[in-house]
Design brief:
Layout lengths: L32 E5 L4 H33 L8 E6 L6 E10 L2 E11 L3 E5 L4 E17 L11 E6 L4 E7 L8 H19 L5 E4 L9 H4 L6 E11 L16 E7 L2 E4 L16 E6 L5 E8 L7 E5 L3 E2 L10 E5 L5 E15 L8 E11 L5 E7 L2 E4 L13 H15 L4 H8 L3 H5 L10 E11 L8 E8 L4 E8 H7 L1 E9 L6 H6 L13 E15 L1
Antiparallel strand pairs: 1-3, 2-5, 3-4, 4-6, 5-6, 6-7, 6-8, 7-9, 10-13, 10-18, 11-12, 11-14, 14-15, 14-16, 17-18, 18-26, 19-22, 19-26, 20-21, 20-23, 23-24, 24-25, 25-26
């Protein structure tokens, strides 16, 4: 997460199984050292208390701009109009502490316990009824990186905050009886709030604040783009002695199990093995997770697939640190119901894979890095990258506003327009108006919204053998999550060139379409968005994967 090095994933060695107190680092980094402090950090809790009103307003904006549109899109027809009538975080603030301090080569990392027991005031209009949320409980460990360290003031180049793992979230609802009355609606509301938290501050998403300048060697953009240490390949092998979850009138009762694996904000589910309490999965039941921090955890759960209702939890294993995963590979991991009841065991295979700029036919796989930088649209939008069954998306963001020119600047711009209208060349126009070449070039864009600055990065894994056939689809969605532009990149072309820059997306539809609504203006490069394309800035890079 350092902002001091170029943004190129660096090879990392497999973490030592017996390493304790480990934190992120690549090959050659020394083990983290730290100590747990028992004091309650009252000074920091006091700071949070004073900032709380501003934090409340910022969260309200996220709920309005991101959570509400995504919630409406995910709900069934009768509930499409659901929205948050009231949203306030209340007066209670999170409690922070104790703290653990870890020394790293490029700086320090603070690990803070966060415990938030809220008195929120949330009122949700669900069309057919009103639902309230009277309490939110959130617990987790917040990481604060102080890095890079520099040899001049302010010494610390930047501050980066993030959760390694999704924090535990619990909601207490009021309104239509209890949760059992409307389980689908309640579940989706909780899911959307959880996804909003993940999208804001769970790795690879983070909040970065540069403290030093670019002249001091700190790139603010790189602070916001965590560099992966490696990929952790998880393969579902088998489970044994699972309890029977499905009752049968004829024959023996059984289960239809599948495995769910979660690392940070990335979740994957294996295929379903029908009617088996001792399932064995295929070689295709494999997924690659991006590892950014060796303190991240792997969450393993086994569910019973139900054709009518949602899947039932069979059992879950104790969370594993990614730094210990290799030591637990192919071992029997005990499953429980979250308490003392045994629910069988699960065997997983884990592989630690480093990223390489070389892509050879005998490699363990490949990773496609998608850097979504900008999109020229006049209304809020998001970007979706899809490769095979994998799909990643940005937040829904609005365009940046162009600064209003001063009165003197307005006069100069008007003089330049009149010069052009009379057929004067560029040199004469510049001399008479007093504008610079850059100001003259941007003259036509003075009253247009600026581009949407996403600055998001996705990592999508793909088998080496599939590079010749697969396609990467990049889709622009409006605030209602309707597609209005698209770009398709063949993986065979990326294999040949290793890195490609996309500067245009194809618009969808014609007059009255989503594209016409979002893009009916001429962009700052002078290219009309109504001509069938829209300006964008997206870089796609291919990396190979090699076993450590």
């Amino acid at each position: 997460l350092s902002g001091r090095q170029p943004h190129t994933p660096e090879p990392a060695q497999a973490p030592a199984a017996a390493e304790t107190g480990a934190s992120e680092g690549s090959s050659g980094s020394r083990p983290a050292t730290g100590r747990r402090r028992s004091e309650s950090l009252e000074w920091l809790n006091d700071v949070v208390l004073r900032l709380w009103p501003k934090i409340d307003l910022a969260v309200q904006k996220i709920i309005h701009d991101q959570v509400t549109p995504q919630l409406q899109e995910s709900l069934p027809g009768p509930f499409k109009g659901t929205y948050f009538k009231t949203f306030s975080l209340g007066q209670k603030t999170p409690r922070l502490g104790p703290v653990q301090v870890c020394q790293r080569e490029d700086g320090l990392k603070l690990i803070l316990d966060v415990d938030y027991q809220s008195d929120v005031n949330i009122d949700i209009s669900a069309v057919v009824a009103s639902i309230g949320v009277k309490s939110i409980s959130l617990k987790g460990q917040l990481m604060i990186r102080l890095a890079p360290l520099i040899d001049e003031m302010p010494v610390v180049g930047g501050l980066t905050a993030y959760f390694n793992d999704s924090p535990e979230l619990d909601l207490i609802f009021t309104g239509v009886g209890n949760v059992a009355d409307m389980p689908v609606l309640y579940g989706l509301i909780k899911q959307q709030i959880s996804q909003a938290i993940n999208a804001a501050i769970v790795l690879p998403n983070c909040i970065a604040v540069p403290l030093a300048t670019e002249q001091q060697g700190v790139d603010p953009a790189l602070l916001k783009k965590p560099k992966p240490l490696a990929m952790l390949r998880a393969t579902a092998l088998r489970a044994s002695k699972l309890p029977s979850m499905d009752w049968s009138l004829v024959g023996k009762s059984s289960s239809d199990p599948f495995v769910k694996v979660t690392v940070a904000n990335d979740s994957w589910s294996s295929s379903v093995v029908k009617q088996s309490c001792n399932p064995t999965w295929t070689d295709e039941d494999v997924h690659d997770f991006v590892v950014f921090d060796q303190d991240q955890h792997i969450w393993l759960e086994v569910y019973d697939k139900d054709m009518v209702t949602s899947a039932d939890l069979i059992g879950k294993a104790k969370p594993l640190k990614v730094s210990n995963a290799m030591a637990e590979s192919e071992k029997h991991l005990a499953l429980s119901d979250g308490g003392n009841k045994s629910c069988g065991s699960l065997q997983m295979k884990f592989q630690w894979l480093t990223l390489s700029e070389e892509v050879s036919p005998d490699m363990a796989g490949c990773v496609v890095m998608v850097e979504v930088q900008q999109l020229m649209a006049k209304e809020a939008a998001s970007m979706v990258a899809k490769l095979g069954s994998q799909e990643k998306r940005t937040d829904t963001l609005g365009p940046s506003e162009t600064a209003e020119p001063s009165e003197e600047q307005k006069v100069r711009l008007e003089v330049a327009r009149r010069c052009q209208a009379h057929g004067l060349d560029e040199a004469a126009t510049l001399k008479i108006s007093g504008l610079s070449k850059a100001e003259l070039a941007d003259m036509d864009a003075q009253h247009l919204p600026g581009p949407i600055e996403f600055q998001s990065i996705f990592y999508l894994s793909i088998p080496r053998k599939s590079l010749q056939d697969e396609e990467l689809t990049l889709t622009a969605l409006n605030a209602k999550q309707k597609p209005f532009a698209e770009g398709i990149l063949k993986m065979s072309e990326l294999l040949e060139k290793k890195s490609l820059q996309l500067e245009r997306l194809q618009l969808r539809g014609g007059e009255g379409s989503e594209a016409a609504t979002c893009c009916s203006f001429e962009d700052s490069s002078g290219y009309s968005a109504e001509g069938g394309e829209i300006a964008a800035s997206i870089r796609v890079t291919l990396f190979g994967l090699t076993p450590a």
